[in-house]
């Protein structure tokens, strides 16, 4: 359908013709993106102009004006129509009647309308009071009526905006910062708001407003394309949902990707992130320039008075060879020769990060345009400057982003391209892969005093997830990549071996500490064999904590830190030559013996709760403030009977207690005391609120064991009300047997979606399988549970291979059902 066809059909058929033409336009697969938005704007312009002409016959001094997004011609399928009815203050009744005859046809078609009726003076006054109105009027576009009236308003509003820029632009910057605080950063969100989040369409509009002020201008390269890409995604989102929404929800991403002809939702998110990154970086550069100009304007009159009207030369302070500070930014020295100095980009970046200053846009672009590639292997200075940059803490992020914006990072590290802007569909991760790597380096910079080779710690932090751009286990792929990258950077063979070991095993400590029995010598020996040396263990400990802290708040806690520190201590002893002793059945403590005797005497369970709030002294560095509770130790003694594990797990789930670790064993009673007792030593924590009273737990446990408490029913009721995100389907549970994990028990590992009563269901299934649970280690990251169960047969020996596999399959079938 051509523009002429649209115009003719609209004129001939009125509102119904417009609706039909609009529908046809939106369903045309051949036309999308800017052409469709332009055609939709033209179609709407002609229809509204027709309405205005018919309704305003004989009325003078009135015009219809498109403002905001409609004024820019950016109509998405479900966009609001932003309209201003401008009048010269003539007959109020005639203007009101005209407004009704314009607005009601729009509403009758179900279109969203943002409208106002004002005189030029009222519009100007409102713009001066309301920044959002002012921004909308900057894009005012005449539709119909008195063109002189519209042109005069545009001229006045633009003149006011430029005259008031020193006051209005700081207000606009504050508005953008507040919005970013509320909505987050578009380039990292799994369900981003394309309009409101930082780096979104609102920020692109703000950059247009800054340019209109003539005070400063945004970097142009790539900005229009980034804005167009976000608008295309919003168009596809409107068509997929049939709603006026800017939030790219998880359940719509596959359909939106298909509508744009993209491979999958990850490809879609990566394009969104790349566009957002361009806009966010342009915003940073532009607001710095605005601040610089405003500072210059404030200082200049005083300097002119002092210097007799002369213009002072900007002060330049040397930072490094070829690098100086000027006006709050890091720039290249006049004598710098990037074409002859391939280390200059890293030297400038390291100097900027060390000084806590931004890299000048012009400096980065000059480097990108002229610098030669580094030789292979890198010279020692280049490697040292990279380590200095990574070790500079929080300022590293901004400097790295400046290099990234001009493509310098992928020129230095070509493997970076595969992780750049790569989303992580895991609620635990709050960053894209590339930003997570930089955040890990920032966190690792805090631990450089704990290790003997800070350079290896920082580089391993930067590269530990580099394998996520490749298929398969990212740790295995990363080990291969890092061997090549580390050699290219200039590390010797021994250092390359350490770096590849750190990347290959960067998850080893936390996974072992939270999922394996640390009392089992096989566990400790396996870690010692993988690590190989005390110095590598030291580095791996620091990398583990930095990685977890950079992942998100759910990935690290004092409890996890204490477990990892305990494992590191045990592994360190083995590496020092000590041999871990085979675990003996420890004699019961006085409290355990008391509880066991009471359980036999009463024929019912007894329990005791004991809070643990202080982490061990060697649990790693702790954040300032009150110590984080490690949980509560729960001791339970139960006369030996069937169903103990599911009963205890079910009662704890009913009372909303999270199980962190658990041990179960039969207890030998003192001479003269008949009967056998199962002793459970568990560490638990309340999901929220306070812990229940021990008496209530005991009463419910008694009912659970005698069958009068319907645990399954209670948990099913809660499960029905458990909040789930519409359209999100969790991957199916997976149950595996860990090979050679222990000589004393078979280790069955369960990976599943965390939910109330999961441990109860697992315990019931293992009980039905006729196996005994010796201990279990529970780990929950976000919505994912990874639980390890040490099980034996009835005689206390590990399960034969075929029996272990059968139990594993049966448990998986139960959880899937």
Automatic annotation (TrEMBL):
The keyword Flavoprotein appears for this protein: no
Taxonomic superkingdom: Bacteria
Residue ranges annotated for the ACT domain, each copy included: 633-716, 747-817
SMART domains: HDc
Coiled-coil region list: none
Keywords, ordered alphabetically: Hydrolase, Magnesium, Multifunctional enzyme, Nucleotidyltransferase, Repeat, Transferase
Molecular function terms, GO-annotated: [protein-PII] uridylyltransferase activity; phosphoric diester hydrolase activity
HD domain segment(s): 433-556
GO biological process: regulation of nitrogen utilization
Cofactor: Mg(2+)
Similarity comment: Belongs to the GlnD family.
HAMAP family registered for this protein in UniProt: PII_uridylyl_transf
Protein name per UniProt: Bifunctional uridylyltransferase/uridylyl-removing enzyme
Gene expressing this chain: glnD
């Amino acid at each position: 359908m051509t523009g002429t066809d649209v115009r003719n059909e609209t004129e001939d058929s009125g509102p119904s013709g417009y609706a039909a033409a609009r529908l046809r336009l939106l369903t045309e697969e051949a036309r999308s993106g800017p052409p469709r938005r332009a055609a939709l704007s033209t179609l709407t312009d002609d229809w509204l102009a027709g309405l205005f002409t018919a309704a305003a016959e004989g009325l003078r001094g009135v015009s219809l004006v498109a403002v905001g997004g409609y004024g820019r011609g950016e109509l998405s399928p479900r966009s609001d129509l932003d309209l201003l009815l401008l009048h010269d203050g003539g007959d109020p009744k005639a203007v009101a009647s005209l407004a009704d005859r314009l607005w009601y046809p729009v509403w009758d078609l179900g279109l969203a309308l943002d409208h106002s009726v004002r005189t030029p003076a009222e519009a100007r006054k409102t713009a001066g009071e309301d920044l959002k109105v002012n921004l909308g009027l900057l894009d005012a576009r005449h539709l119909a009526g008195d063109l002189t009236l519209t042109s005069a308003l545009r001229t006045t509003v633009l003149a006011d905006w430029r005259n008031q820029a020193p006051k209005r632009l700081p207000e606009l910057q504050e508005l953008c910062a507040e919005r970013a605080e509320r909505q987050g950063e578009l380039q990292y969100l799994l369900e981003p708001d394309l309009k409101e989040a930082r780096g979104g369409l609102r920020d692109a509009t703000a950059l247009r407003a800054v340019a209109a002020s003539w005070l400063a201008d945004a970097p142009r390269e790539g900005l229009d394309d980034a804005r167009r890409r976000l608008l295309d995604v919003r168009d596809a989102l409107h068509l997929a949902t049939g709603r006026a929404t800017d939030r790219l929800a998880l359940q719509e991403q596959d359909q939106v990707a298909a509508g744009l002809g993209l491979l999958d939702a990850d490809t879609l998110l990566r394009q969104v992130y790349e566009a957002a990154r361009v806009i966010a970086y342009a915003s940073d550069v532009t607001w710095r320039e605005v601040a610089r100009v405003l500072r210059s304007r404030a200082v200049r009159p005083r300097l002119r008075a002092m210097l007799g009207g002369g213009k002072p030369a900007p002060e330049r302070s040397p930072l490094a060879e070829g690098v100086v500070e000027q006006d709050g930014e890091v720039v290249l020295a006049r004598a710098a020769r990037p074409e002859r100095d391939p280390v200059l980009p890293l030297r400038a970046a390291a100097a900027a990060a060390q000084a806590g200053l931004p890299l000048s846009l012009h400096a980065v672009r000059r480097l990108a345009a002229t610098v030669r590639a580094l030789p292979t292997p890198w010279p020692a200075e280049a490697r040292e400057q990279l380590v200095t940059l990574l070790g500079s803490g929080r300022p590293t992020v901004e400097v790295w982003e400046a290099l990234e914006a001009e493509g310098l990072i992928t020129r230095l590290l070509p493997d970076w391209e595969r992780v750049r802007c790569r989303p992580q569909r895991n609620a635990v991760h709050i960053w894209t892969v590339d930003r997570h790597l930089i955040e890990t380096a920032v966190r690792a910079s805090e631990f450089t005093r704990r290790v003997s080779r800070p350079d290896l710690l920082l580089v391993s932090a930067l590269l530990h997830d580099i394998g996520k751009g490749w298929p398969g286990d990212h740790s295995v792929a990363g080990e291969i990549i890092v061997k090549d990258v580390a050699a290219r950077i200039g590390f010797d063979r021994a250092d390359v071996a350490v770096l590849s070991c750190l990347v290959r095993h960067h998850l080893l400590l936390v996974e072992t500490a939270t999922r394996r029995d640390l009392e089992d010598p096989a566990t400790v020996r396996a870690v010692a064999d993988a690590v190989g040396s005390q110095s590598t263990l030291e580095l791996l400990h620091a990398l583990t904590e930095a990685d977890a802290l950079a992942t998100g708040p759910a990935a690290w806690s004092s409890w996890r830190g204490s477990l990892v520190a305990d494992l590191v201590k045990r592994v360190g002893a083995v590496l020092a030559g000590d041999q871990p002793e085979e675990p003996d059945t420890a004699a019961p403590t006085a409290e355990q013996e008391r509880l066991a005797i009471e359980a036999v005497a009463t024929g019912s369970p007894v329990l005791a709760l004991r809070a643990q709030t202080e982490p061990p002294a060697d649990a790693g560095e702790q954040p300032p403030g009150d110590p984080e509770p490690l949980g509560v130790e729960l001791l339970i003694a139960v006369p030996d009977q069937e169903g103990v594990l599911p009963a205890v797990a079910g009662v704890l789930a009913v009372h909303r207690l999270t199980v962190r670790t658990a041990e179960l064993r039969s207890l030998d009673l003192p001479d003269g005391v008949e009967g056998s007792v199962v002793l459970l030593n568990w560490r638990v924590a309340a999901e929220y609120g306070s812990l229940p009273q021990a008496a209530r737990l005991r009463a419910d446990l008694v009912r659970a064991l005698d069958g009068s408490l319907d645990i399954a029913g209670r948990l099913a009721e809660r499960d029905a009300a458990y909040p789930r995100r519409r359209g999100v389907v969790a991957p199916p549970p997976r149950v595996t047997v860990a090979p050679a994990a222990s000589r004393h028990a078979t280790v069955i590992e369960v990976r599943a979606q965390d939910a109330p009563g999961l441990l109860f269901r697992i315990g019931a299934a293992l009980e039905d399988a006729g196996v005994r649970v010796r201990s279990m280690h529970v780990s929950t990251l976000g919505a994912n549970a990874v639980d390890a169960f040490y099980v034996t047969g009835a005689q206390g020996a590990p399960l034969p291979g075929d029996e272990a596999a059968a139990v594993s399959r049966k448990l998986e079938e139960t959880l899937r059902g």
